[in-house]
Amino acid sequence: MFRNQRYKLLLLLVFSFAVACSPKINKYESILDGISAKPEILALHRDSVRVDIFGALPLPLLDKHTKIFLYPEYRYGEGALRLGEYAAFDGVYDNTSQAVRLDQKITFPYLKGMEKGELSLKALVFYKDKVLTPKEKSLASGLDTTPLLTRFGQVTPNEPIQDIGVYMDKDFSGFSTKLEKEFTVSFPLASSQAPGKTIPSGLYNFLIRGEKGYVIEKIKITGLSSPEDAELTNPGLAANRAENLKERIRNVQGFSKLPIETDSRSNDWFDFRLLLREYTGINTNQRESYYNVLTSNGDFAEKLVQMRQFDTYRKVSSELYPRLRSAKVTVFLQNARFSDPEIAASVFKMLQDGRGLEGFSNEHLIYAGQQAKRLEEKERIYQKLTEINPSALAFNNLGVVYLNQAQRELGKREKNILINQAIKMFREANRLQANSISMHNVGRAFLLREDYFEAYLAISEASGLEKNESNAFLRYNEGIRGALDIINGDYRLATIRFNRAPENEVNFFNKGLAYFLAEDYRQALIAFEESVQVNRDFGYGFYGLALVAAKSGDQPALIENLEKAIIRSEYLKERAMKDVIFKDYLVEPRFVRLFK
After folding, report:
1. Residue 318: is its pLDDT beyond 60?
2. Could you give the CA distance from residue 565 to residue 236 in angstroms, rounded to a whole number?
3. What's the Rg (C-alpha) of the chain?
4. How many domains does the chain have?
5. Which spans in 144-215 are helix H?
6. pTM (2 decimals)?
């Protein structure tokens, strides 16, 4: 037993000597204990992350034989982003009364997938001829990317792709879409039957061939009779002429169900006055004599007696009265190209087939472009418009087509080509006519490219081009401008923009997000609730309410609203599982059950 004790004592002396004669490695294990990071939860600001690494190194470990270098890095996924090398102590520090302070501000770019990363700090200690590696320290866990929730029409996984950009539209509500064609059918004296067995060739050919781009809406027939004695003896002659002509038109193939109205005028001088106005067989004074009688207070018969006294009556009656043995046929046509929902497909097919657009005006093409549902149709129509009638509308709208094609393009190279084409079209539209819509669309193109600085400049310039503060487009533009303010970190300014923007679920949500990021949680709560009230199918409003509940520690409200949000959006479900704002609830059973 005594020999055992002597052996143990010997080992202890050997160990103590070894420690005394070697670099004291263990003492450097605590060298990073006094260093921290602020904020403790990193946050995305614009397109980067800012962090302040600060603290002090322990004085007892610092001497002329020691140099200390620090290596911060952000680890996420399967990779790590090294954030530089910093000399914390270079061995020349000789003030033993104060600690060596460290205050290093670091900014590094945000990269996709950083939400669940960790900021760590490594150190290398050079002591004489030794290199020591103390245990690394975790400074911050997770990254708050709440600004990325901002909605501005971007493509989001598992959600419908939204149309972006603003088309220039033409108002066709006051555009003439009606056309009238008038025909006169002559009848023999005192007869209600027109010559032949069918209708006159001129009227027949028109009814069969029609007018290109128009459809017959209805026909109106007005029967007439002349003031000749043979016709005056039959009071129903004018009406009979109209009815008989109606039946003949009904017998034309394809017209049996067409609306046909009939009317008649007899013992009336209206049509005679119209003929007299263009009649050149008498002079002005003689014509005035007839007008004096026709506009007097007498009845039809009295006026006839008076005119029979004129020297010119025989000539006038023989040349004009036969023209009143007739029926007026008015064909009412509807411009089918301004009412046909298939016009875009028709024009598109003609362009594809290389056929001409005979009968189509610029207005028809603009209308077709507005009616087109498919981007391919719109592209061909607006391309044609830029060729035959270059205008701000044509170039702007073609640019919007390219913008939406880029929105749907998966290939990065192809996407950028389309964005560049869109910007070119918008700038050409602005060259032809400076306008706020095309400038706004330039901003949308840069936004799609994620060039937020250029996007903000263009969107702001678009607002400057609008003078009317109540203009609907200006209010819409301010909504996009507010979204960019959030991305740029100007949260208070964003809330002002949204006060002027249209009141819809997206703008209410973005407004709530701006207040949330500005740490005004009461106003954020109000705005998120307004978003939900406008559209309960829009899950983002519920997600915003869950964010506020997380900040206030209201677990029941968090669970209730987050459940509603993730039911409505698969994207929000995936985001919630890695959102650092919810990290304190990750082990809560009710929270975990939401994702099963």
Report:
1. yes
2. 77
3. 43
4. 2
5. 201-209
6. 0.72
Confidence of residue 24 (pLDDT cuts 50, 70, 90): low
Q: Among all chains, which residue has been given the structure tokens 């002559």?
A: 186
Instruction: Please state the φ and ψ torsions of residue 112, each to the nearest 5 degrees.
Output: -55, 135
CATH number of domain containing 83: 2.60.40
Q: Which residue, among 52, 40, 37, 49, has the nearest Cα to 147 in the 3D structure?
A: 49
Rounded Cα–Cα distance for residues 586 and 243 (Å): 86
Q: Are residues 213 and 299 in the same domain?
A: yes
Residue 418 belongs to a domain: no
Residues 247 and 315 in one domain: yes
Cα separation of 171 and 366, whole Å? 10
For 39-90, how does the pLDDT look when each residue is reduced to its tens digit (9 = 90+)?
Answer: 988 999 988 999 999 998 888 888 888 889 999 999 998 889 999 999 988 8
The per-residue pLDDT for 158 is 82
CA within 13 Å, CB half, 280: 0
One domain for residues 102 and 229 = no
Model confidence pLDDT, tens digit, residues 161-176: 999 999 998 876 655 5
Locate 527 and state its tokens.
């705005």
Is residue 99 situated within a structural domain? yes
- Provide the CATH number for the domain around residue 254: 3.30.1330.60
Residues comprising the chain, all counted: 596
Of all residues in the chain, the percent with pLDDT exceeding 70 is 89
Tell me, yes or no, whether 187 and 331 share the same domain: yes
Flag whether 78 is in a domain. yes
The fraction of the chain above a pLDDT of 90, given in percent, is: 67
Q: Which domain holds residue 208?
A: 178-336
Residue 545 in tokens: 């309410």
Residue 396: Cβ within 10 Å count:
27
Question: Within 13 Å of residue 26, how many CA atoms lie on the same side as its CB?
Answer: 3
Place of tokens 């602020």: 38
What is the pLDDT, as a whole number, of residue 66? 87
Q: Please name the helix (run of DSSP H) or strand (run of DSSP E) that holds residue 43, with its range, or none.
A: strand 42-45
pLDDT of amino acid 14: 41
**pLDDT (mean) for 383-405:** 94
Query: Is 508 part of a structural domain of the chain?
Result: no
The Cα–Cα gap between 341 and 368 comes to 8
For the stretch 400-450, pLDDT in tens is 999 999 999 999 999 999 999 999 999 999 999 999 999 999 999 999 999
pLDDT surpasses 70 at 341: no
For residue 42, which of 79, 81, 68 has the smallest C-alpha distance? 81
Question: What distance in Å separates the CA atoms of residue 450 and residue 111, rounded to the nearest whole number?
Answer: 13
Give the end of a domain, one of 94, 125, 144: 144
Phi, psi for residue 553 in degrees, rounded to 5: 75, 20
Distance CA 339, CA 371 (A): 10
Does 193 share its domain with 303?
A: yes
Burial of 355-387, coded b for 16+ CB within 10 Å and e otherwise, reads: eeeeebeeebbbbbbbbbeebebbbbbbebbbe
What kind and span of H or E run contains 427?
A: helix 412-432
